Amino acid sequence: MVVSQFDDAEIDRIFHALADATRRDIVTRVLRQEESISQLARRYDMSFAAVQKHVAVLARASLVVKQRSGREQLVHGNPEVLRKAARLLDEYEQIWRHRAQAIEDILSEEDA
Fold first, then answer.
1. What would the mean pLDDT of 7-21 be, rounded to a whole number?
2. Is 74:67 a contact under the CB 8 Å cutoff?
3. Is 96 helix (H, G, I), strand (E, B) or coil?
């Protein structure tokens, strides 16, 4: 693997979790403000159990953190994991920019 500083399983969990629109929406909401799973469940046209499953996927990817407060489970976002995913995408972008520059250099040499 070219980008070796990342654990493949961890990155797989992060991008799998972010591949779903509802989970991305949950991440956005709980990054702005901590919410209980009950509050989140009221926002979506799905069962409480379905929202719990989405939150569990996000928690396994460490994109959110669940914390018990009395009878409720509060959920808040984990921006450090999103930064890690962004760094990985930045590394891929740099690889492609380097390749594009190499192609451009070859084409310039041929024209000269």
1. 95
2. yes
3. helix
What single DSSP character describes residue 110? H
CA distance 8 to 3: 9
**Sequence-ordered list of residues with C-beta below 8 angstroms from that of 46, at least 6 positions apart, any chain:** 22
Considering the entire predicted model, what is its pTM?
A: 0.83
CA distance 37 to 92: 35
Mean pLDDT, to the nearest integer, of 52-77?
Answer: 96
Q: What angle do CA 32, 34, 40 make, to 5 degrees?
A: 95
Backbone angles phi, psi at 104, to 5 degrees: -60, -40
Name the residue among 60, 112, 102 with its Cα closest to residue 81.
60
- Report the interhelical angle of 21-32 vs 48-60 (nearest 10°): 80
Taking residue 103's Cβ as centre, other Cβ atoms within 10 Å add up to: 10
Asked if 55 and 40 touch (Cβ cutoff 8 Å), the reply is yes
- Using pLDDT thresholds of 50, 70 and 90, give the confidence band for residue 3: low
